[in-house]
Amino acid sequence: MKAVRLEGVGSIALREVGKPAAGPDDLLVRIEACGVCGTDRHLFHGEFPCTPPVTLGHEFSGIVEAIGTGVSGFSVGDRVTGDPNIACGSCPHCHAGRINLCHNLIAIGIRRDGGFAEYVVLPQKQAFSLPKDLKPTHGAFCEPLGCCLHGLDLAQIRPGSSVAVLGGGVIGLLTVQLARLAGATTIILSTRQASRRALAEELGATATVDPSACDIIDTVVGASGLMPGGVNVVFECAGVRETVEQSMRLAKAGGTVVVVGVMPQGMKAEFEPFDLLFRELRVLGSFLNPFTHRRAADLIASGAIEIDKLISRHVTLEEAAAVIANPPAPGEVKVLVVPR
Ligand SMILES: [Zn+2]
Ligand SMILES: [Zn+2]
Predict the structure, then answer these.
(1) In this protein, which residues make up the domain named Enoyl reductase (ER) (predicted)?
(2) Cα–Cα nearest to 109, from 71, 53, 171
(3) Within the chain, which residues score under 70 in pLDDT?
(4) Helix 293-302 and helix 142-155: axis angle, to 10°?
């Protein structure tokens, strides 16, 4: 079968590899769609730990083609989404219920072969069913939505809350939708790209800001700003220095900052510890999707999340390596690799 292989830092190519077989507790899944993620680009550039050679792709869904002898609850022909993050279940973090911090975490598409291929092997405990009538491309959004759900859970948004979302990529635009569903009544999204601002307003943002055209701090929290004094919750969804630094200044006293965006390892940012202390900010990292994949799949199956507008284009496996090796095109939100 064809698979997009990361062979080392800066080296990615489509290769012909053997079709994998399902072990006793595995499903063999024929990929319907697999999303290209910023993390794939970080992996390509050596900015996120991984172990090449490996087939990339951790945001996938597809149809069960074969099942191992020990599998129950799934049948050939089922549509499934895979939670790529496999926790060991036996380290101190797993025992404490914090599976995303597992010492021995192995992610499909990062440390073992993933979904930029015709088939993927999915352990049954990582598989979640999707409706047969769901659009085949929508299941690929369960993983990013699950990550956003974890951020929402940490933020503890209550009805009437004010929220700022920094970054207009797929994580930012899913977070806007979840904040709306959680009852936030002010949702401000900041991104430089006009098309993404327009999309955010369609998806539930009550206001958008172009941080390259104004002083975002003044525009949002200034005396005559959108939310004078700051917002209850800031979601950092861009993973760049500027937005990490802005996030703490946009939160109101006693507010919460949730860092969801994946930044390159080693990136530095500045903040004033006095601000953290004096304004008693709650600054939280939100990593991966612990126990949120089922809810993400149910939300997507319910139609409560707008997915089609987030899909910029479909590409083939043949085109995928070039997409990952290059920065996203302006305005692009999510590119899906669709094998056939
Ligand atoms: Zn991802
Ligand atoms: Zn563990």
Answers:
(1) 8-337
(2) 53
(3) none
(4) 110
Cα-to-centroid distance, 142 and ligand 2 (Å): 22
Q: Cα-flanking dihedrals φ and ψ of residue 139, to 5°?
A: -60, -25
Q: State the distance from the centre of ligand 1 to the C-alpha of 80, rounded, in angstroms.
A: 17
Pairing of strands 26-35, 334-337: antiparallel
The reported pLDDT for the residue numbered 213 is 97
Spatial contact of 141 and 206, defined as CB atoms under 8 Å apart: no
Among the bound ligands, the one closest to the CA of 43: 1
Give me the pLDDT at residue 299, please. Answer: 98
**What sign does the CA torsion over 61, 63, 65, 70 have?**
positive
User: Residues lining ligand 1 (ion), CB within 5 A?
Assistant: 37, 39
Query: What is the number of the ligand closest to the CA of 105?
Result: 2
Q: Which domains does the chain have, with CATH numbers?
A: 2-137+307-337 (3.90.180.10), 146-285 (3.40.50.720)
Give me the phi and psi of 242, to 5 degrees please.
Answer: -55, -45
User: Which ligand is nearest the CA of 140, by number?
Assistant: 1
**Ligand 1 centroid from CA 220, angstroms:** 29
**Total residues belonging to the chain:** 340
